[in-house]
Design goal:
single chain, 108 residues, mainly alpha, DUF2178 domain-containing protein
């Protein structure tokens, strides 16, 4: 990520930030196995129903955060008369949500 952001976007600082985030996450996953929170993150499939519910709620919260930021960005883009990444993110997210809803409704 560092090399890509440096060579393509000429932004080595952004690459260092991305590398630091990935290293911090890897360190937590490696050295934090004694904590239940880290165990919930690293277990697939979940250990029990409680861990499955925690994962489901965490994914729902993350989904709502991404949707909120994407919609705000999309509205900002439309207000300025441009289309960009937020338009694509909203389109892909909307289509994925509708398809997943239809598929899960038939399966469950």
């Amino acid at each position: 990520m560092f090399l890509v952001s440096w060579l393509v976007a000429d932004a080595p600082g952004q690459g260092v930030a991305m590398l630091a985030i990935m290293l911090a996450y890897a360190t937590v996953m490696r050295h934090g196995q004694r904590f239940e929170t880290v165990q919930v993150l690293s277990q697939d499939p979940p250990l029990d129903e409680r861990h499955a519910l925690i994962q489901q709620r965490a994914v729902a919260i993350a989904y709502h955060a991404v949707v909120g930021v994407s919609l705000i960005g999309f509205i900002w883009e439309m207000a300025h008369g441009t289309t960009g990444a937020f338009t694509l993110i909203c389109f892909v997210g909307g289509i994925t949500h509708m398809c997943a809803t239809a598929i899960l409704r038939r399966r469950l």
